[in-house]
Amino acid sequence: MTESVESGDQHSFTGPLSGLRVIEVGSIGPGPFCAMLLSDLGADVIRLDRASGAGLVGPNADFRTELLHRGRRSVAVDLKNPAGPEVVLSLVDRADVLIEGFRPGVTERLGIGPEVCAQRNPSLIYGRMTGFGQDGPLAQAVGHDINYVALSGALSMIGRKGEPPTPPLSLVGDFGGGGMILALGILGALYERQRSGLGQVIDASMVEGAALLATAFFGFSQTGTWNRERGTNIVDSGAPYYDAYETADGKWLSVGAMEPHFYADLVSLLEIGAQLPDQNDQSEWPAMKKVFADAVRTRTRDQWISAAEGLTPCIAPILEFDEAPHHPHNRARGSFVTVDGLVQPGPAPRFSRTAATVDRRPPIPGEHTAQALASWGLSSTDVDGWLASGALGRSERESPS
């Protein structure tokens, strides 16, 4: 079973970033993912949502189930209200990090750009998340994950032979090349700040982050070890011993037996050795794939896993989202947690002394406006004034302080 917790208003802040204060200017995709990573590791993250009209982009319409927002408190701010920027700058006075995901120049126009923030707090790390970067011909262009991964060169390599490039969910641009790279940049800047005492601006571009993830393949493509045609290489579904195959029960089995000794065990498991030419004879790969597919289809997915015990064929079941949390390995490690009834991946990586945790569900916009600001030392007089002016908003179900 997954670890189950009921979230409360008191965050444990047990992780290695305990004591770090982060402002997240509400955005979508990579910015929230970066803030989630920092929050999972113990940072106190206040998310600034719109005081009115806050919405989600994508299939989810309920803030309480938007898992990228887990672990933090929400303050509702109207940045177009004359007093709105002062709310943010008052938090900047007390913050270590600010994360924003607007197009270049927007926070400057709103009065919360990096120069203004640095004047208020010279040690602030200012993280900027965009698709194309803060400058360059496309800096102001609009786009989404697929566009950034396309421009990076990575998307051209993903897909099966004879088929169009395949969008890899939003994993390569938004999350791996975006939010995770920004989090890495923030941690790097925090380390440098220990020497200089100064903050700096992090310019994280999803185009550049996606390209960085594909570094090895840029190398392969220039040394004659990577075919330009998709689906004809070892790890892009070209090799018969590195692919996904349907099983007898309509489920799927992953196969990744690249090394000769693992390949030998795979061939033995499937009982197809007599039918196969040399492992790396690429001219024979299409025919070999049919042999592999026909063999795998003779048993169910779980039967293959059982049959492989004691061998090293590098196979694993391709689990559905609702299966993965219940796999014995994932259960043994507590890889998934359940918070307020929502099953979700737990924090990663693991720390030997300062365990990372998730103990607060995603907030409703404005759910913690007064109590979050008070916990950062803002006066009740200022908060009441901003509420009266409309610079701040609050949810009807704001948690008590």
Automatic annotation (TrEMBL):
Span list, region Disordered: 347-371
Leader peptide range in chain numbering: none
Gene Ontology molecular-function annotations: catalytic activity
SUPFAM superfamilies recorded: CoA-transferase family III (CaiB/BaiF)
InterPro entries: CoA-transferase_III (IPR050509), CoA-Trfase_fam_III (IPR003673), CoA-Trfase_III_dom3_sf (IPR044855), CoA-Trfase_III_dom_1_sf (IPR023606)
UniProt-listed Pfam families: CoA_transf_3
PANTHER family found in the cross-reference section: ALPHA-METHYLACYL-COA RACEMASE, SUCCINYL-COA--D-CITRAMALATE COA-TRANSFERASE
Name under which the protein is recorded: CaiB/BaiF CoA-transferase family protein
